[in-house]
Amino acid sequence: MPWTNKKTHTSPKTDPMPWENKGRKAKETQKTKDPEMTREEMRAYFEKYKDDPVPLGEYKHKDMKEIVKIRTQETGMPFEQHHVWPQAQSKEISKATGKQYKNNVVIPLPRKIHQKDNREFMHERNEQNKPQNPRESLAQGVNDTRNGMLEAGCDRAKTNDACLDALRKIKSENPGGFEGKIPPKPKGE
Questions:
Q1: What is the DSSP letter of 4?
Q2: Is the full-model pTM beyond 0.85?
Q3: Rounded distance, CA 79 to CA 60, Å?
Q4: Cβ(54)–Cβ(158) under 8 Å?
Q5: If 0-12 CB within 10 Å is exposed, 13-18 middle and 19+ buried, where does residue 173 land?
Q6: Are strands 105-110 and 57-58 parallel, antiparallel or unpaired?
Q7: What is the C-alpha radius of gyration for the chain, rounded to an integer number of angstroms?
Q8: Which residues neighbour 51 within 8 Å (Cβ) at sequence distance 6 or greater?
Q9: How many Å apart are CA 120 and CA 127, to the nearest integer?
Q10: Is 17 exposed, middle or buried (CB count within 10 Å of its CB: 0-12, 13-18, 19+)?
Q11: For bias kind Basic and acidic residues, which ranges apply (predicted)?
Q12: Which helix (H) or strand (E) holds 33?
C-alpha cells in the first residue's frame, strides 16, 4: 500500500504536489471552476452596458485596464481582454511570413463569456482551421468575435461597428501586412 500523508490525506501517486499546481495550470483550473453564463445572463450584461457594450482598446493599456476594473467592480465578475485577432493565429502567421504583426486590439469581456464552452464561444475556429494567409486569418478572427458577440446577445449594429473599427485599427497598425499569401511549406513536412 502506498504511503499517505496523514495531515492532508494525499498520496504522491494520485494527488499533485503543492508545487505542481502553480502558474498556468492553476489559472486554467481556476477558470474552469466558474459556472458558465446562461443566455439570459449574457443578454442582461449587454443590456446593462447598452451604451458601450463593446469598447475597443489596446491590450494592457491603462484605459483598457480602467474599463476592466470598473466593470469588474460593477458586475462582481472577473474580466479578460479578448483579442479580436487571436494571438495564436497572429503568431503562426508571423512565423510563416517572417513579418512581425502588431496585434493588441482587445475587447473586455467577462471571463464567463470569453471562456464559455472551453473558449469555443469566442474562438470558434481558432484551433481547428489554420488560415493560409494573413487576410484570411484576420477575417476569421473578426468573424468569430462578431458571431460570438451576437450569439451572446450584444446589439448587432454596435457589434458590427466595433468589429469594423477593430479590423481598420489592426490593418492600420500593420500597413501592407495583409496582402500576400503565406509561402507554401517545403515538401516532406
A1: -
A2: no
A3: 12
A4: yes
A5: middle
A6: antiparallel
A7: 20
A8: none
A9: 9
A10: exposed
A11: 21-39, 115-128
A12: helix 24-33
N-term to C-term CA, the chain: 48
Average pLDDT, the chain: 77
Which residue's C-alpha cell is 468569430? 144
* Residues making up the chain, counted from first to last: 189
C-alpha cell of 162?
A: 466595433
Written as one string, the DSSP assignment of 155-171 is -HHHHHHHHHHHHHHHH
Question: Can you list the alpha helix ranges (DSSP code H) found in 34-133?
Answer: 39-48, 62-75, 87-97, 111-114
Q: Which amino acid is at 180?
A: G
Burial class (CB in 10 A: 0-12, 13-18, 19+), 85: buried
